[in-house]
Amino acid sequence: MSVLRIVRELTSALHAARLSYCHWKGNARLQEAVLGLRDLDVLVDRDGALALSGILATVGFKRFASSPWEAVPALEDYLALDADTGRLVHLHLHYRLTVGERFLNGYRLPWEAVVLSTRQFDATTAMYVADPHMELLLLIARQAIRLGPIDRIAGWLGRPCVSALTGSDLRSLAARTDPHRLARLSEGLLGKEATRLLLDIVSGEPSYRRLRALKRRALPPLSAYRTYTPAGAVVRQGMRFLVGLALALNRRILRSLVIPGRTLSSGGLVIVFEGEDENERATLVDRIAAWLTWKLDVLVLHGRPRNGRATRRKAFRARSRGLIVLYDGFPERQSPDTGNAPERARDADPPDLVINIDPDHSPEQALLVAQRALWQEV
């Protein structure tokens, strides 16, 4: 299995520093994660947080800020560029096991020490991963905790209450686990009654009825780990749902600057693309936007509009809110001295980076050069 160089550098640095970590969920798709096609979900011992921040900076991972309504306690977002392929690697860094309902994650399960002490080394990826018994237990517990009204309706209609991906993960883990070992682990964390129901789910199907019964048995011992009161959780969950809906509409349709989502912690950037071929320039800007919007909110401005002043204000307002602005060309302004001679707006409020497109480069070469230059500036 191939692994992106940036991922190999990260795990090698963690091993050299002897930091305790593991990839704790979704290990059936770990191959996609180490290739930058899915998120890396890494649990770390928070006692090594200071050393870890230095490692991430040295390797090239940069922290990003999420909207306050999307943020999860004890979870940090990092992105890194793999210079060989131009792929972005998204690292979810977990200091705590914060899980729970949709739009909330209202439980903090104090099982980090168990996960890290039972981790296994995956020689194929040269990375530590969660023990499949612990991963399976966490997967089922998370699915039970997050059951809601939508899942009840799906149960009434006879539809699966877990996604096809979750069902595939469950079957993959069940095939790699020993029921007796799973039972011993579960009894110590959830109790005997919940364990009996959990084993029924592993040997059968994760139906709504079974998950609901498990939730009733598991919640009493887990209630001590709630982050919010029941009433507070409902209110916060509703507000997060509305904000999440607004963010989704904004990213796909409205393109407003009022409610940005994931942005740069160090402040936004205005990136200007220049080149003689307008079509080539516009195509490159769109490809860079598609590359970034996988994980970041981006504002794209094409052409040199007549109302350059208003467009410039929009760009620099977006930058002040932490967004990356991709400028296809740059509007000109009238010089106050001559009244006629055009003067670059960058003279008054310069962009952070100007990327000149080399006409001798192929589209793929131009893309990789632009990706490297932009990421260096982030």
Notes on the protein architecture:
The protein has helices at residues 5-16, 30-34, 49-59, 112-117, 132-145, 149-156, 164-174, 179-189, 192-203, 208-222, 230-254, 278-292, 308-320, 363-377; strands at 21-23, 40-44, 62-65, 75-82, 87-94, 97-99, 107-109, 120-122, 127-129, 263-264, 269-274, 298-301, 324-328, 332-334, 342-344, 353-356. It has a six-stranded mixed β-sheet. The protein has a four-stranded parallel β-sheet with strand order 12-13-11-16, sandwiched between helices. It folds into two domains: 5-225, 2-Layer Sandwich (Beta Polymerase, domain 2); 263-377, Rossmann fold (3-Layer(aba) Sandwich). The protein is globular. By secondary structure, it is α/β, with parallel strands linked by helices. Strand 4 and strand 5 form a beta hairpin. Helices cover 46% and strands 18% of the residues. It is built from 14 helices and 16 strands.
